[in-house]
Amino acid sequence: MVGLMGWGVSEQGWRKGPWTPEEDKLLTEYVRLHGEGRWSCVARSAELNRSGKSCRLRWVNYLRPGLKKGQITPQEEGIIIELHALWGNKWSTIARYLPGRTDNEIKNYWRTHFKKKAKPSQKQEKRKTQLQLDQQKQEKQENDMNMNKLVSPHIAEVSNEKITERQDEQEMVSMYPTNTMEDQWLPKMYQNVASWSDTITEDGLWGGLWNLQDDPYRMSQTSDCNKIHPQSGASTAYLCGADTLNLYNGGYIF
DNA sequence: AAATTACGCAACCGCAAATTG
DNA sequence: GCAATTTGCGGTTGCGTAATT
């Protein structure tokens, strides 16, 4: 995507900037053999000359199996809207409900699509308004067809009308509970699905469904250096098995 | 066709929490 | 119990590309 111009090397001597295919290969191979976690160890051992932080980020956001590469679907958008309304900028928490999507991706999506932008010129505004009207028409149709059956009326309302007029994010965040209540305050859409609440546990979110023990990559971890880090195990849940994918259709359980 | 603007995304930074020795 | 280290998260930035003027 980008050359190395303007990036270079950190003070600690770690390489910075865009990853090369060779580096990706090295990291992928290392994780395949030793599993995730212990990123500082990865950085030292894999001859990558990248900081552990950088390795983790690259793996989580780009190389990890099971990541969805395509556009955010209307269904996923609905989930993002609803969950953001509940939890604010808790991107990693929101990402747990969108299999294959990363917090970074969701964060970027929100920023580019929903966050209040600086006031454009009148000319631009006029043009944008027209575009938005067309888009909203189309989205409304799609939403009516695809979502209203599954999602609470609340979501449809938000996605069609409220987003562009949304107040400052901080304001919105303060309207909703965060942290302590986040796992209990599940979106209405989840409540609409029979027995969803039964699958949600206090610390595991969907309990067995998200059980990392089922993850083939984590299962394959053997090296001492790469023993599972309790922290990452608890907070970074994702799916990559075919079985789990069967349960989803754009982020919804059927 | 060239210049400008807007958008999308990858990657970095700083901080806080968790873990380790 | 404490300091050092590691990890994860949220915010921000830099850059390529598409769209518009």
From TrEMBL:
GO MF term set: DNA-binding transcription factor activity; sequence-specific DNA binding
Locations listed in the record: Nucleus
Residue segments, region Disordered: 115-146
Domain Myb-like: residue ranges: 11-63, 64-114
Record-annotated HTH myb-type domain positions: 15-63, 64-118
GO cellular component: nucleus
UniProt keyword list: DNA-binding, Nucleus, Repeat, Transcription, Transcription regulation
One Pfam family this sequence matches: Myb_DNA-binding
Stated name of the protein: Uncharacterized protein
Lineage, highest ranks first: Eukaryota, Viridiplantae, Streptophyta, Embryophyta, Tracheophyta
